[in-house]
Amino acid sequence: MRVRNDLLHVVEKNEEKIDAVEAFESIHGVKRVERPQDYINYIIDLREYDVPYHVRFAIDNDVRSGQWYNVNVSGSDVLLQRREDLLQRAEVHVCAFDIETTKLPLKFPDAEYDNVMMISYMIDGQGYLIINRECVGEDIDDLEYTPKPEFEGYFRVKNVQTELDLLKAWFSHMQEVKPGIYVTYNGDFFDWPFLEKRAAHHGIKMNEEIGFQCDNNQGECRAKFSCHLDCFAWVKRDSYLPQGSQGLKAVTKAKLGYDPLEVNPEDMVRFAMEQPQTMASYSVSDAVATYYLYMTYVHPFIFSLATIIPMSPDEVLRKGSGTLCEMLLMVQAFKASVICPNKHQADLEKFYNNRLLESETYIGGHVECLETGVFRSDLPTKFQLEPLAYEQLIGNLDRDLHYVIAVEGKLDIDSVTNYDEVKDAIEQKLVALRDHPIREERPLIYHLDVAAMYPNIILTNRLQPPSIVTDVDCTACDFNRPGKNCLRKLEWVWRGETYMAKKNDYYHIKRQIESELIQSGGIASSKPFLDLSKPEHLLKLKDRLKKYCQKAHKRVVDKPITEVREAGICMRENSFYVDTVRSFRDRRYEYKGLNKTWKGKLAEAKASGNSMKIQEAQDMVVLYDSLQLAHKCILNSFYGYVMRKGARWYSMEMAGVVTYTGAKIIQNARLLVEKIGRPLELDTDGIWCVLPGSFPENFTFKTKAGKKLTISYPCVMLNADVARNNTNDQYQTLKDPVNKTYTTHSECSIEFEVDGPYKAMILPASKEEGILIKKRYAVFNEDGTLAELKGFEIKRRGELKLIKVFQAEVFDKFLHGSTLEECYSAVASVANRWLDLLDNQGIDIADSELLDFISESSTMSKSLVDYGEQKSCAVTTAKRLAEFLGDSMVKDKGLHCQYIVAREPQGTPVSERAVPVAIFETDPEIAKHYLRKWFRFSSDANIRSIVDWSYYKQRLSSAIQKIITIPAAMQKISNPVPRVLHPDWLHKKVREKDDRFRQRKLRDIFSPLAKEEGLHNLNRTGDMEDLLISNKDLRKNPSHGLDIDKENNPNGASVGSGLNISKKQQNCMTGLNVPCTSQIQNAASYETVDKGTDYQGWLD
């Protein structure tokens, strides 16, 4: 360690001197004499010096946790030999525990003066409960808590007299059992530190008793010989649960499938004395939930990852997904004999257009909401399809089917026995849709998403940070030859913000501040600027620059700049990064396949009624689903990792290329979906859409060998286009390491997959004109279960419960009714019921229930003093809590503020009208005193007379507008909740939608020509006057003004006038004996109806 620190100083000095030395040598034309004893002056870099010792050992010796080894000890040497034949995971003793403590009202438990009331724990499925009779009203007998048959909980209870006896009993049992793994839920933050402090209070060192010690700097509790796995860390990183659903109760419901016992924290101390059996059941319920959550999800996941990541299980659980990616890359780099780069350090002085950059990044993925309202598979939806798009699908049908058979199915086209039959079935459906483009029918609701999009973009284009090269790199490369195919260029979008000051202004400010004395670190004395540390240099300099910009230019930074840039990708760079991503992706695909297999076995087991097989299949489904989700999290992090601060493999260009390529794939797919259906929402990696119910879906190819290949046509048509536009024909693989020869092949692993069809999709609206809310929707499966719920208040912590309960009730109602009107009517009934509750001021419910509905909560991350002059509901609540509960309440951070909004004093901001809910739980006389003081009225302290009902009605009305009334108006349904008025802009929007005489846009009538067609027919363009023909003249002479060249334009599209007319429509116009539908008369895209000759047609 000391040598490393000394060498770091040497490297820093040598880096500073190297530029001066090179400049001196270039001016004088001489080189300094190199002497062996001056070797220290030539050290200009250190690598891998900051790798922790245990990680270095694990990488170098290929040692991993969770695997079997033969251990041979010879003198001071220890030899580990891995047992490849032993695959089954070792069974270790697991102890999951949870503690219940006393607490002061509205305060978080404090180990300085609060006590441990109970400690419940499970060891290998057997439960134990230790009771502190100082805090519990009576002895507790052995009890059972088994929420589900598969989650048994039999508890042996031990009643002790004091907290000291409780701690000694638990420590003694742990010394006896010696668990290899301790499991908690948020134990790093609460359980372990609390136990450690209470043990110290009684003169016991927890570290000496069971080996665990809390690290306050890292916020972790660790031991040298045993693991502590905190399930909360897994939930935050790998569970894919929203932040508002990460408490133990919510996780238990979501992952284990049952509702756990709940007790209000403010009632726990009282219940321990008055209802001890209730508190005992509650305590053991937490231990049961923690144990089975760990054994079902966390244990298999952590030890699967630990077998490939060179870290201890504690670190595998707690480290970020970016760090896990880096560990995997370091392993592959070692195997490939690649020295790892140092952690990235940002350039402190970077300029763009002669100005200092304040920040720079890249444009990320494209997300957009396109529709709002209710879309159900059993309610007809209107479609305006583009016949030319369907004509193109028909023309590409052979291409698309050949692609899916050869590339995705890996079959020989000649081996397929029913190709013509499948093709004809698809073509018939496409022809029917082409011939009747304006239709109303039941839709198919699909989510077309790219499987593992970012990882597959990386793999397809051989993207990795070392592969990003410049012209300078290529000039120095041995493979730089004319006609080289090892350089692939891809676009990305750079985004930067610059300071307003020019570069010369910046340097002038810098020279000025370098000659000044600067006050540093709050110290009264000052010191020269150059004596400050580099971070302080930058901070002081930028602070001075901001003041100058504000004074001279009236703003600090200029408007953001975006610029399309091109990145060079070397196809011959060592592929260790790409190989790591590929192996991890394939591992996830393996888990997904096993999950699908076990789902099939589960269905078979349920059909047979074998309970043992059902349980086994359910366990395996949960296991593999957890593993594939966890691998998804880390797999997607390979993209985000390259832009992480301090990443060893850092590349903004690579991250930009990945997101820009992905955005183009989704936007190109959207262009097709817009023509053949209706896109609803664009995700980063997919499209939610509705397609006509008669659109081709699933088909099965049969082969001569009896093998079957089932395809989804919506995916097939997109994948063929993706392959055409995104295939990398320059992908190179090292063939001969000695002679450095490479083989070139085409690569494209980017493919769409289809999810659905779904029963319904609900997209809310925004209250602002012209804005649609992104990433907020509800999706239902065909069986009526909720498939996905994203972005709503129901999933947020601390949100108004009135809104959350309203949303929880309203979503199911969207499946009611046989028409859109009936659907909105069913939904409106829920809204009206909650509006009635507010209109009659909650007269039908108890005060406690009313408070529960209208109260909001917030936890203060700092002490009240640290908030200073900030104003918020939480700050006002904290101040008022301090008034009647004492200033000690607000000295520390973590105060839980639960409040309602009062109507008095009128005219003041909402933040000044917050009332702590606790005031209504105190003595009535005390409550009356403070309520009169705060609101300056002398009436009784009745909660209903205090509440600002208009505020809550406005909050509820806002939610109703977003979910019900505005979407209804956009779908031409009259306001289903008349009490909630439409915003003013919506009336105009509705009138425009209903206006039959609204002027049409030119782009709805004309479509652009392909460039080559326009150039080909440049000399054949007619006069302007020739285009102004009436509908009557067009019927008499359909070729007048239209130059239809069947030889040069076999599809029949007009190339003379710019009107796109299909061959079928030409035949109809010329009176040929070809079947023709009435759609040509209805589709205004192809005819302009003359008001003077056909008034009714003009109206239609």
TrEMBL record:
Cofactor entry: [4Fe-4S] cluster
The entry's protein name is DNA polymerase epsilon catalytic subunit
Q: What is this organism's lineage? A: Eukaryota, Viridiplantae, Streptophyta, Embryophyta, Tracheophyta
The EC class name is: transferase
User: Could you tell me where the Polar residues compositional bias lies?
Assistant: 1049-1059
Which InterPro entries does the UniProt record give?
DNA-dir_DNA_pol_B, DNA-dir_DNA_pol_B_exonuc, DNA/RNA_pol_sf, DNA_pol_B_thumb, DNA_pol_palm_dom_sf, POL2, POL2_thumb, RNaseH-like_sf
Return the EC number. Answer: 2.7.7.7
Where does this one sit in the cell? Nucleus
* DNA-directed DNA polymerase family B exonuclease domain boundaries: 45-251
Assigned GO CC terms = epsilon DNA polymerase complex
Looking at the record, the residues that make up the DNA polymerase epsilon ,catalytic subunit A thumb domain are 796-971
Give start-end positions of Basic and acidic residues composition bias: 1038-1048
Which Pfam families did the record assign? Answer: DNA_pol_B_exo1, POL2_thumb
Example GO biological process? DNA repair
Give the protein's function: DNA polymerase II participates in chromosomal DNA replication.
The similarity comment for this entry is: Belongs to the DNA polymerase type-B family.
Which GO molecular function entries does the Swiss-Prot or TrEMBL record give?
A: 4 iron, 4 sulfur cluster binding; DNA binding; DNA-directed DNA polymerase activity; nucleotide binding; zinc ion binding
Keywords associated with the record: 4Fe-4S, DNA replication, DNA-binding, DNA-directed DNA polymerase, Iron, Iron-sulfur, Metal-binding, Nucleotidyltransferase, Nucleus, Transferase, Zinc, Zinc-finger
Q: Which reaction is catalysed here?
A: DNA(n) + a 2'-deoxyribonucleoside 5'-triphosphate = DNA(n+1) + diphosphate
**Looking at the record, which segments are called Disordered?**
1038-1059
